[in-house]
Each structure stands twice: as structure tokens, then as C-alpha cells.
């Protein structure tokens, strides 16, 4: 399977105001490849550069140095910006910042209307996108009547309707209650599983990352860990050193290992933990 995202020696700093000294790089030589259809979580404490990295994937920011290539498109090529944003859609923390219409289906159709998509095609895309996030029955509702999780699913539907190959989600559940988080995550996983859309999920929730195909951990503007969740979360001490937690069941297994019990360090689900503890005491 080919790489849909290739990041090569990416450096970035925000332009200083006149008279200010040249700032330190926010991103410091990042290399990263993501394959088509992968579901990748990016973790890191506040200020590590993960959201800055995400904004490079659909051209909101462009590299100070280095290259970001998305499905063959150089993100610094302004002439390809329109094509890039059809290929890589972006969903942000606050759904209210992405909702622009007073009716749900009109909001999902908004970008398609601007693109001049024919009505019949637009109608199908809007309906399919709303069904993909289980919001079709709310298509005639006002977004103001929806919960936070429902609004975020509408925002995701608006991106799906553009038929992107990749969706970047920058902490999409950060402002949601547990039920809203559950709804949004179910919709994201369904998009990846059933539609083959590549997902890049920026999150600070360890349980969300544990359910992904791959976890990338950032610290001080660079990638420090990149592997399957079981391998990344087994590095408990390293993650704690850079200010991150691990799933609770992983920490329990780590504490049991420190106490001398023979238990796998690669436990990331409650089911795995229960099974391992049963074996210890059987």
C-alpha cells in the first residue's frame, strides 16, 4: 500500500513580529510516512507541536524548511491548495467554528455548492455523508438544537461529503462529554473501516490512541516514538518522562510487573488485563 503522507525534514517556526528575535523551531526536522487507509494517532503534551504538524497536512501552514507531500501534492504549492484540501479534510476541536448554516443538510452541502457540484450528485453525497455518521434523521434540524457530539458529527459529515482520501482530526473530542466522545469516535472508526479513509487523529486521550492502528508520540517538536499501540504504551517510564499517561490497564500491568509478577507489558485493553490477571492467580 502506498504512502498518502510523506513528511521529510519538516522545520517550522511562526514568523516573529518586527524587532523580535528569530524564534525557536516549533517543529524540528520531523520525518513521517503514513500509508493509505491507516488510522494513526498523534500524542504529545501541550506545546509539543502536534497541532502545528496537523495544520501542515492540508496547507493551513507551510514548512519553513523541508517538505510535506500529501497524495503526491506538495503542500507548499499554492496553485495546488484547492486540490490538496479536497484530498485532505480537517476537523477541529470546536464544531461551532465549522458549522455555517442554520439547517444540518445545508451545512453539509455548503462546500459542495461552492464547488459547483451538480444537484443530484450533491444530494447523494450529503445523504451518504450524514448516514455515515448516523445523523441522517437530523438532516432538517437546526445545529443549535444538537448536542456537542452531534454537532461534531455534522462537521465530520461536511468533510466526508468532499470525498477526501484523508481526514485530519485535531482533538475532535476535547470539548465533548463521554457520550459525545463515544459517538464521534464510532463515526471516525466506521469511516476508516468501511470507506477506507486515512485517519490522522490528534488526541490527548490514551484510550482513543490505544484503539488506533499506530501511535506517534511527539515531544519538543519531533517524533520520539512511532509503533503499534501495544509497543508504544509498553514504554511507560519514557511516556511519563515526557508528561504523558498510559491507559489505566497498561499502568496496572506495569505496577504488577514492578511488584514482581510475570505479566505482559503490552496490555492495552480491559479484556487483555482481566485475562492476564486470571492467569496469574489461577
What's the arrangement of secondary structure elements?
Layout: E1 3-12, E2 27-35, E3 39-43, H1 50-56, E4 65-70, E5 73-74, H2 81-87, E6 88-91, H3 104-115, H4 119-132, H5 148-160, E7 166-170, H6 178-195, E8 198-202, H7 206-210, E9 214-219, E10 222-227, H8 229-233, H9 236-241, H10 248-258, H11 270-281
Parallel strand pairs: 3-8, 3-9, 6-7, 7-8
Antiparallel strand pairs: 1-2, 1-4, 4-5, 9-10
Helix pairs in contact: 3-4, 3-5, 4-5, 5-6
| Overall outline | globular
Q: What class would the helix/strand composition place it in?
A: alpha/beta
Number of helices: 11
Spans where pLDDT lies below 50 across 5 or more residues: none
Computed Rg = 20 Å
Helix content: 25-40%
Question: Would you list the SSEs in sequence order as H and E?
Answer: EEEHEEHEHHHEHEHEEHHHH
Tell me the number of strands.
10
N→C terminal distance: 43 Å
Beta-strand residue percentage: 15-25%
Strand order of the largest sheet: 6-7-8-3-9-10
Biggest sheet details: 6 strands, mixed
Mean pLDDT: 92
Question: If you had to describe this structure to a student in words, what would you say it looks like?
Answer:
- With 282 residues, the protein is of the alpha/beta class.
- Helices cover 39% and strands 21% of the residues.
- It has 11 helices and 10 strands.
- The chain has helices spanning 50-56, 81-87, 104-115, 119-132, 148-160, 178-195, 206-210, 229-233, 236-241, 248-258, 270-281, and strands at residues 3-12, 27-35, 39-43, 65-70, 73-74, 88-91, 166-170, 198-202, 214-219, 222-227.
- The strands form 2 sheets. A 6-stranded mixed beta sheet has the order 6-7-8-3-9-10, sandwiched between helices. The protein has a 4-stranded antiparallel beta sheet with strand order 2-1-4-5, covered by helices on one side.
- β9 and β10 form a beta hairpin.
- The protein is globular and about 65 Å long.
- The chain starts with a strand and ends with a helix.
Amino acid at each position: 500500500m502506498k504512502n498518502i503522507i510523506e513528511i521529510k525534514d519538516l522545520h517550522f517556526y511562526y514568523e516573529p513580529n518586527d524587532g523580535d528575535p528569530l524564534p525557536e523551531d516549533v517543529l524540528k526536522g520531523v520525518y513521517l510516512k503514513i500509508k493509505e487507509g491507516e488510522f494513526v494517532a498523534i500524542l504529545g503534551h501541550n506545546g509539543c507541536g502536534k497541532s502545528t504538524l496537523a495544520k501542515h497536512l492540508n496547507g493551513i501552514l507551510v514548512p519553513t524548511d523541508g517538505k510535506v507531500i500529501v497524495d503526491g501534492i506538495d503542500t507548499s504549492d499554492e496553485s495546488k491548495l484547492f486540490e490538496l484540501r479536497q484530498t485532505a479534510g480537517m476537523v477541529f476541536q470546536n464544531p461551532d467554528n465549522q458549522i455555517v448554516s442554520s439547517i444540518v443538510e445545508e451545512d453539509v452541502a455548503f462546500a459542495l455548492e461552492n464547488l459547483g457540484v451538480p444537484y443530484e450528485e450533491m444530494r447523494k453525497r450529503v445523504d451518504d455523508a450524514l448516514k455515515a455518521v448516523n445523523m441522517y434523521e437530523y438532516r432538517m434540524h437546526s445545529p443549535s438544537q444538537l448536542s456537542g457530539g452531534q454537532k461534531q458529527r455534522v462537521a465530520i459529515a461536511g468533510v466526508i461529503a468532499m470525498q477526501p482520501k484523508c481526514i485530519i482530526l485535531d482533538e475532535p473530542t476535547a470539548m465533548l462529554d463521554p457520550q459525545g466522545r463515544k459517538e464521534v469516535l464510532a463515526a471516525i472508526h466506521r469511516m476508516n473501516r468501511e470507506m477506507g479513509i486515512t485517519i490522522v487523529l490528534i488526541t490527548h486521550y490514551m484510550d482513543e490512541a490505544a484503539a488506533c492502528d499506530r501511535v506517534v508520540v511527539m515531544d519538543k517538536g519531533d517524533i520520539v516514538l512511532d509503533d503499534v499501540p501495544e509497543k508504544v504504551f509498553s514504554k511507560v517510564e519514557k511516556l511519563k518522562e515526557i508528561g504523558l499517561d498510559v491507559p489505566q490497564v497498561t499502568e496496572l500491568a506495569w505496577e504488577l510487573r514492578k511488584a514482581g509478577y510475570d505479566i505482559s507489558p503490552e496490555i492495552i485493553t480491559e479484556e487483555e488485563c482481566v485475562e492476564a490477571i486470571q492467569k496469574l492467580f489461577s
